[in-house]
Amino acid sequence: MSETSNNNLGTRSVTLFATCMVDQISPSVGESTVEVLEHLGLDVKFLDEQTCCGQPAFNSGFRSESEPVAQRFLELFEKVDGPIIVPSGSCAAMVRNFYADLFRHDKGLVERARTLSERLYEFTEFIHRFFGSDAITGICDDRVTYHKCCHLLREVGIDEQPIEMLSNIEGLKMVQMNRSDVCCGFGGAFSVKMPDISSAILDEKLDNIEATKANRVVAGDIGCIFQIQGGLRRRGSTTRVLHLAEILSESIRNAKTGKVTE
Amino acid sequence: MKPLTINFRSKAAQTIGDEQVQNSLEHVYTGFYRGRLNAAADTHNWEELRTKGKAIKDHTIAHLDHYLEMFSEKVEENGGNVFFADNADEARQYITELATDRDIETVIKSKSMVSEEMALAENMNESGFETIETDLGEYIIQLAGETPYHLIAPAVHKSRKDVAELLDKDFADGDRVPDATELTMLARKQLRDVFARADMSVTGVNFAVAESGSIVLVTNEGNGRMSTSVPRVHVAVMGMEKIIPSIQDLSTMLRILIRSATGQRISTYVTMVNGPKTPDEEEGPEEFHVVIMNNGRHKLLKDPFLRESLNCIRCGACLNACPVYRKVGGHAYGWVYPGPIGAIVTPVITGLKDANNLPAASSLCGACHEACPVKINIPRMLLELRHKTAEGSSDPNERTSKFAERAIWKAWRTGMMGRGRFDWGARLAYLLMRPFSINGWIKKAPPPISGWTLSRDFPLIAGESLKSRLNRRRKKDI
Question: Are residues B263 and B118 in the same domain?
């Protein structure tokens, strides 16, 4: 199933693009990402100047506001060599797939975005590709269900890989939810602009999650995590929603200390 | 058909609250969506067929004039007539005048979304021609006085009881609800006489083959074949994008259309019509007319970023895949074409000003793009239309974004253009939000995020950014 457990990357140094939401709202996801990458023997650089890739304004149609932010991202990350790791399918998709549209009036920028994209990886994609799905082992005693975030699934192409990775965690019980590949209804500004539609879609997702009786939901994008966690909390559920990096880092830690969660 | 796109939000809310319709909409997923997945899995060269289908449509749309001319010449060679209608009014007028001229009394219609653009059945009835829909779903919708809910399943939102009430005047509350077969037999009985007395038919066109001048109909009920063979005048109506170059191409297109629409390998009927009956034939219509309609499609054609929408073969797969369509239903979209493809076509054809909620009503999940048999990148086009609405259109009628929204995005940009401001902005938001939070979550937020907290808790900004946390960690390490 997995390619190899050995690092076939050719470098030990990688750079983290945390994304604006992880940086300011959920830094623990960023810390977990760093911990997992360090566990794999990598040095993780963090560029202090980073902010956002420009996606929110682009998705809302305000390309003139998005473009300078995207260009700033590009210039900043062009300064470092080696792989850039993003713990978000959506932000990775923005740079790799949507910058071509955003910059289309300027061939030079399109080309620069394409070049940068060649060494920009979503977190799961990066581990799967260069270390293999069985590279990370650990211990955790949770009942977990996995939600396939849309951009990670359809724009980046990460489908069952996270489930394969979680299958190497000792004690972890994986339960599949129905329609795990159906959207949670987040969609950025859509969730605020059309809250009734966004919530109706979320309700179906929450029903499917609750039917699994999982105490943890794992997902790959912070927006979807907020949407699902916010909805579960409103229902009075104690189920926690974690980024894949969070459950991996926790399981690694548990294995090191011989402890199991909580 | 008069666009009602401006009512999108209220119609959507109404459907979300309608338990019966929500239950009916489940079939869209469990029936059609899963059916397509299974059919695709059973087809070893499925992705190859999709790639081929896309290439055929890309090529045809790029040479549309050429193939329309070829098709039109062939139809005339085969003894048929072609009328190019610039808009729905012209198309309807041509058909009505033809009916008047040929002393027509009864018109039977088989399924056609293009005829919905003309509100043809309604108008013909008003003009004194008895005009009856013969597709079962369309017949139900006509009896209900509604418009189609779905591209291939017009009455998908109706329960069996709704249908029983429409088909059987004597049906009363508390009666046993007939099963689907019984209901179909009821409709069949009612329609049989109509077929027998009809002297004109109007059908749609699934594909128009340029090299042979044939039109192709894909149906499951047999009404299409009755319509193309019984009445003495047959009128086929099509949007100008329905053309494909050759019979060879038809083989590819039929395979992807039918599997994507219903999950069948082949529909019960595939009807090809090459023209009116020839002197040595005993049966078939005496006259065959093809109405090729533009009705705003040139606007899609001339926009390089929206042109791909003309590749659509109206299979409905994007509707079935769409989480938004499955909640808001077909009528919310306010015109003929619902769902993701409708959210592109409708604003361009009927006007973006009133329809600006359609491209906005998407989480950009990409399920439509994934499902499309000809790989139309629908999310990309939704983003194009959002851009026009926000700031991109040169037409002030289309550029409908509000001052507050523009101001928010300007402020957002300012905040993102420097790390200092980014941290400062986050700090400010944190301090403002913190008093309203419990354990890091907010139950009720003010605008512009008040919509979120109607149904979800909102996360509090972190008191310390990742940058700061990592820097502290590094100092500790040293």
Answer: yes
Nearest to residue B380, comparing CAs of A106, A93, A113?
A: A93
Question: Distance (Å) from the C-alpha of residue A142 to the closest C-alpha of chain B?
Answer: 22
Tell me the domains of chain A and their CATH numbers.
Answer: 13-128 (no CATH), 134-257 (3.40.50)
Q: Would B288 be classed as within a structural domain?
A: yes
A59 touches chain B (CB under 8 A): yes
Residue of A nearest to B416 (CA): A51
Between CA A240 and CA A228 the distance in angstroms is 9
* CA contacts within 13 A on the Cβ side of A64: 9
Are residues A17 and A77 in contact, defined by beta-carbon separation less than 8 angstroms?
Answer: yes
B213 backbone dihedrals φ, ψ, rounded to 5°: 70, 25
Nearest to B451 among A49, A51, A193 (CB): A193
B365·A234 Cβ contact <8 A: no
Residue B449: inside a domain, yes or no?
yes
Q: Is residue B441 in a domain?
A: yes
State how far the Cα of A71 lies from the Cα of A91, in Å rounded to an integer: 14
Identify the domain containing residue B249 by its residue range: 46-297
Q: Are residues B308 and B119 in contact, defined by beta-carbon separation less than 8 angstroms?
A: no
- Answer whether B409 sits within 8 Å of A62, measured CB to CB: yes
Residues 106-145 in A contacting B (C-alpha not used; CB under 8 Å): none
Residues B203 and B61 in one domain: yes
B297, B328, B362 - which closes a domain: B297
CA distance A192 to chain B (A): 5
- B443 shares a domain with B351: no
Residue B466 touches chain A, beta carbons under 8 Å: yes
Q: B62 and B201 share a domain?
A: yes
Q: State the best of A192, A225, A228, A246 to mutate against chain B, taking most chain B CBs within 10 Å.
A: A192
Report which residue type is found at B104: I
B264 token code pair: 């069948």
What pLDDT, in 10s, does the model give residues B247-262? 999 999 999 999 999 9
CA distance B454 to chain A (A): 8
Tens of pLDDT, residue by residue over B203-244, are 999 999 999 999 999 999 999 999 999 999 999 999 999 999
Q: Within the 375-404 window of chain B, which residues sit less than 8 Å (CB to CB) from chain A?
A: 380, 383, 385-392, 401
Q: Which residues on A lie below 8 Å from B318 (Cβ)?
A: none
Tokens describing residue B56 = 């055929």
Note the pLDDT of residue A7: 61
Predicted confidence (pLDDT) per residue in A204-253, tens digit: 999 999 999 999 999 999 999 999 999 999 999 999 999 999 999 999 99
Q: pLDDT tens digits for B80-110?
A: 999 999 999 999 999 999 999 999 999 999 9
**ipTM confidence:** 0.96
How many residues belong to chain B? 478
Q: Do A234 and B456 touch (CB under 8 A)?
A: yes
Residues B135 and B260 placed together within one structural domain of the fold: yes
